[in-house]
């Protein structure tokens, strides 16, 4: 018997609730964040002990600025980042989706699919292909790892499982 064809939910631009740049206010600990990108860059700065950049990231009002500041983190080590990045992004998105009911509903509505960041330029968090590219429908032809899509799919499955308990 053949395996059922995998179904995908593609996203990319900041207008998508699944984007790291989508404006969504949430609180983690004592701090309020305005997007998952801000949380991610703040987490990156804190991971490497760069409190100065972390504070600047929390003050920055746009994800583009937050990302630029995240590139300035002192003592950055790619190996260490690669070990921790997905957990940081998971934690930020957990807060984002569980504290914003309409976003949670949008995430849960993707049940039965794999979330895929169809970013033509990002080969780590995305698949390195645009949604219009015919290669998006087959994992073996992706040019990226889809870390963000994997994190969001895992988060959705965990939230669905928690809801059934």
Automatic annotation (TrEMBL):
Keywords: Hydrolase
One Gene Ontology term of the molecular function aspect: hydrolase activity
Cross-referenced Pfam families: NADAR
Stretch forming the signal peptide: none
Residues covered by the NADAR domain: 10-159
Catalytic activity from the UniProt record: 5-amino-6-(5-phospho-D-ribosylamino)uracil + H2O = 5,6-diaminouracil + D-ribose 5-phosphate; 2,5-diamino-6-hydroxy-4-(5-phosphoribosylamino)-pyrimidine + H2O = 2,5,6-triamino-4-hydroxypyrimidine + D-ribose 5-phosphate
Keyword Hydrolase attributed: yes
Protein name listed in UniProt: GTP cyclohydrolase
């Amino acid at each position: 018997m053949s395996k059922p064809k995998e179904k995908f939910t593609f996203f990319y631009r900041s207008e998508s609730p699944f984007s790291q740049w989508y404006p969504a206010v949430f609180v983690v600990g004592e701090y309020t964040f305005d997007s998952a990108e801000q949380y991610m860059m703040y987490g990156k700065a804190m991971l490497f002990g760069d409190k100065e950049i972390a504070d600047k990231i929390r003050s920055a009002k746009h994800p583009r600025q937050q990302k630029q500041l995240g590139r300035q983190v002192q003592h950055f080590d790619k190996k260490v980042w690669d070990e921790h990045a997905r957990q940081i992004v998971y934690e930020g998105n957990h807060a984002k989706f569980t504290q914003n009911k309409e976003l949670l509903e949008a995430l849960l509505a993707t049940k039965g699919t794999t979330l895929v960041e169809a970013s033509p330029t990002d080969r780590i968090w995305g698949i390195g292909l645009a949604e219009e590219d015919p290669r998006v429908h087959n994992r073996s032809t992706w040019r990226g790892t889809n870390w963000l899509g994997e994190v969001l799919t895992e988060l959705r499955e965990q939230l669905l499982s928690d809801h059934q308990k």
